[in-house]
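Hey, quick one: can you model this chain's 3D structure?
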Amino acid sequence: KKATIVAAMERARAQREAVQPKNTEQLSSEQKRQIAAVEARRAAPPARAEAQATSAAAAGSSLPETPDRTGD
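Sure thing. Here's the predicted structure for all 72 residues.
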């Protein structure tokens, strides 16, 4: 059963990687910049989440601090 699930996940991953963006041939420089920014954000979260977990563990807290919202 687990092998079936793993195989299905592999097929889904392969399909996602095979998909090519459409309508990207004639983009303005601003549109290209926006796409590059999105791709950078997509690549960054795992490293950022790991860094936050490491800093939280070092501080002895598992929850991030929240700002005081009583002055609204």
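One thing worth noting: The radius of gyration is 20 Å.
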